[in-house]
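Protein modeling request. Please complete all fields; requests missing the sequence field cannot be processed.
Requester role: graduate student
Desired output: 3D structure, token encoding
Chains: 1
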Amino acid sequence: MIKIVQVTDPHIGATADYRLAGVDTRRTFHEVMEQVRTEEPEVLLMTGDNAADYSEGAYEHFFAVMQTFEQPHYWIPGNHDKVSAAESAAGGKPFQRTLDLGDWLIVMLDSVIPRSPNGELGSEELNTLENVLEQSEHSNVIICLHHHPVNINCTWLDTQRVADADEFFELVDRFPSVKAIFWGHIHQEFNSRHGEVLLHSCPSTCIQFLTDSDEFALDSRSPGYRVIELNDDGSINTYVRRVEIPDMGIDIGCLGYE
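Delivered output (258 residues):
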């Protein structure tokens, strides 16, 4: 069994005084990562919006925290991220597209439309995925991206889902080796299926979005992360853990942010 922890949407600011809807996102990121440490995962997957503002200071802080872990960590960009800035802060280490874990392969996709909250893969990204899947000899594949490829019954968020999701799933359907798809962006837990393919999102390490909402709204639920256990028989066990953080200072009436 291979144990992975997914962490997403920390929204770290350039400086320590940054707040998102009243929340100190550096503090909540630290608190969540300290509990993640107790899980003793073999791999850490960071599924986007690692920074709040594309800034060098945010990425420097993010990678400084991640370097305190012995386990390898892998990241994908979110709509608040800039790949070149992240790569620079990571010492020039490039955004890695695949991770070979024996019988398991993890494919990491970029669903970002620059300067937009909306998601799209585009022909280049879909071609990359197709080539990887065609060439892979792995029995089991997981796909990770930032944006959600299915509607989640949040009207305002569903306008931001992957625009070419139909093409994405047409491709996925050709490869029975694909066992699951994991994403961030929606700041809430979501669990479903596309045929036999598992579909899961992850809570943010900072603020949470209210489920089943027509307009932007925050939830009072605690930050969290997702544990993903890849079994030798090709099955997956996955669940969310929440981290209780007192006095977060969340402005529950916040009407949005950029």
